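Schema walk-through. Below, the input block comes first and the output block second. Nothing else is stored per chain. Lengths vary across the set, and this one has 131 residues.
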Amino acid sequence: MLAGARELPVVNILGSAILVMAFCYWARAVLIPLALAVLLTCLLHPVVTRLQRLGLWRVPSVLLVVLLASALLGGIGWVVMGQLTTLAHDLPQYERNIKRKIADLRQLGKGGVIERVQRSIQDIAADLHGE
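--- output ---
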């Protein structure tokens, strides 16, 4: 009877943990934006406080900081998208260069040191397998 009494709290803890994880999974559509809002609030609060000390009221300070933060994030997104677009446009050229370099390496390896090393490794592997 003591063994059953000891297992019950473990089952309760495990069940509670599963319920909490299931709730977090279900509520992620609300919790993720909420966590992001709290993070942005903590990051932008010092700037708002500084603007208030300079004599700007609270609402205009908050609006100005949010506008500047949005413009900054939008600018960063625009630059990243431009870089990704350029990369996608130049990708076929990179692919041709890589294929040409691989072909050059294969030509370099024919009859040279690399081919002899590969042949030696294949011979050793064949001897180990008894072929």
